Protein 1
Amino acid sequence: MPMETELSRIGISLPKNLLDKFDEIITIRGYSSRSEGIRDAIRNYITYYRWMSDVKGDRQGVITMIYDHDQRGLLPTLTDIQHDFMGIIQASLHSHVSHNRCLEVILVHGDGAQLKDLAERLMSQKGVESVKLTTIPIED
């Protein structure tokens, strides 16, 4: 990645528990500042986005999602999204991690663009903590 030359100052609002966890990680990893940790996190996000952009053709994969099942309106929204993609969803597994956190694993097969679209729609919902799409190409 090219060296950044100009710095821009931004302001963000984060829940205290998220910032506390982030601070703990940057301390463990030895970052010199929050800013350096945030820059590294953004670089990783960009790399992951580019990797996801390369998901093309017939693919088999899995979507791993962690979400807060107490988030108002989230469960029906997730169900509706999955129904919109029932042509590519082969199976799903739901597990209760804690009182309010759930882990869902969705097995998918189809065109890479559709798999990415599903993952991105799930990812954009308020109350969804994490979504990871992992795929492999289908070869004859």
Note: The first helix runs from residue 16 to 29.
Protein 2
Amino acid sequence: MLPLAGLDGWSELSPWHYYAGSDPLANGISPPHLLVLAAITALAVMAGLRRFEHRDLKG
């Protein structure tokens, strides 16, 4: 894989960083990473419920 020096700090924007970045099989689950993933999940569920409640089925 080619190194992309300009993208070093961008990995923290990816959910994969929080899922596997701390090597959970070897080190255990990282509580801060777990909280970030829970917050992302909660926001996605809230956005989905809001969109679901405002759907237009009269069409």
Note: DSSP finds three helices and no strands in the chain.
